[in-house]
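TL;DR need structure tokens for one chain.
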Amino acid sequence: MCDIFKNAIRSDIQIMMIIFVVGLATVVSTLLGGLFAIRLKDKFHLILGFSAGAVIGVALFDLIPESINLATKSYDTKIVTAMMAAGFCIYMILDRFFTMHSHSDDHCENCHHQGGLGAAALVLHSMLDGLGIGLAFKVSPSIGWIVAAAVLSHDFSDGINTVSMILKNNGARLQAMRWLAVDAIAPAVGVLISLFISVNESTLGLILGVFTGLFLYIGASDLVPESHHKHPAAWTTISTILGIFVLYVAIHFAS
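>> reply
TL;DR here they are.
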């Protein structure tokens, strides 16, 4: 009995260490994306295009099958797909009413305010990403790695988007760096919160369904248009298709 208890404790510690390391990886990935956006401002549309494909690929080839597999142990498939739709709509509402993207109005009087609101929405999204990673690892390490891969695949673009949100709304570089730091820390905060919350596999499946909707919206309605904005469509389209293909191959061999 003592050995079983010790093994259980050892296993919990290992999972917590993995969660901690993944949390740090999200921080680094977000920071790198933001720094990349600042240093190579005219080139990151290709990275955004690839990131869009990667996020869509993770949603289609990884999150959808995994969420259905987990949630249908207790819920009907229609409920799972409804959660996916809910996730899509939730992020759309946040994007439309709080982010307030504006590509055409470069001299808007409220640009600084808009940039701050948009960056804040991205920070909230990043924190929810971290929460999803932590909850997934607590259910199963294999599921945790799936969610972590999905999050890490777009954290780089999260950093880019946060910096872009400030700079394109006439914000200062220092302001962009501050928001980037907050956005980078946000997933780690979400991971920390997850240590105090537990869910079963079916509930996690529904949560993954919501994340699927979020990822589909981020990829198709946010990253793809942003990557094409004021740039030739050919290379960004190729980058997006390449992102989808790379994620398909990676997930295929990982499984």
